[in-house]
């Protein structure tokens, strides 16, 4: 990452932190962000983000899986509290066509230090200014953290949550997405008509 990009990311993260600090006050349970347009989802899946070793990845690598994408930062207390539960659930669902991906909106040094303290068994990517810009289009108009998206194996958003995603709700949504996947696989064969 060049110096200009790093400076832009730091400024964007600082602005996001200021906004998130205000937005992360407890919200009523009934507040649910709107599901976003397919264009934003397509751009998110195509967006290249580096892992902690500097290797570029995109969410498109996990197409065909139920995908949990959690936007977080090391300075976000609710994020820090949520990650151990996400780690536990990711391991529970590891053999069930489910992939967790954490998108850290923070610097590589801070994320690496955090993952040494709190091991994360799933893929962690470093968000960019582009990923921050997409938050609003993906249903998070407040651009607060943590923010979690659950995609079905078809790539469509099945669930999204601004704020901490309770474990029971996470497991329920994963089971629903997996059931929908199973239904999609079985249904086409059932719908075929003999010639």
Task: Describe the protein in words.
The structure is a single chain. This protein is of the alpha/beta class and 195 residues long. It has one domain: Glutaredoxin (3-Layer(aba) Sandwich), CATH 3.40.30. 46% of the residues lie in helices and 17% in strands. The protein has 6 helices and 7 strands, in the order ααβββαβαβαββα. Helix 3 links the parallel strand 3 and strand 4. The longest helix has 25 residues. The protein starts with a helix and ends with a helix. The C terminus is likely disordered.
Strand order within the widest beta sheet: 2-1-5-4-3-6-7
CATH architecture name? 3-Layer(aba) Sandwich
How would you characterize the largest beta sheet?
A: 7 strands, mixed
Spatial extent as radius of gyration: 17 Å
Proportion of helical residues: 40-55%
In whole angstroms, the N-to-C terminal distance is 58 Å
CATH class: Alpha Beta
> N-to-C SSE series?
HHEEEHEHEHEEH
Tally of helical runs: 6
Which structural class matches the secondary elements? Answer: alpha/beta
Do you know the CATH topology?
A: Glutaredoxin
Domains, number: 1
Shape: globular
User: How many beta-strand runs?
Assistant: 7
Overall mean pLDDT score?
83
- Percent of residues in β-strands: 15-25%
Parts with pLDDT < 50 across at least 5 consecutive residues: 9-36, 185-195
CATH superfamily: Glutaredoxin
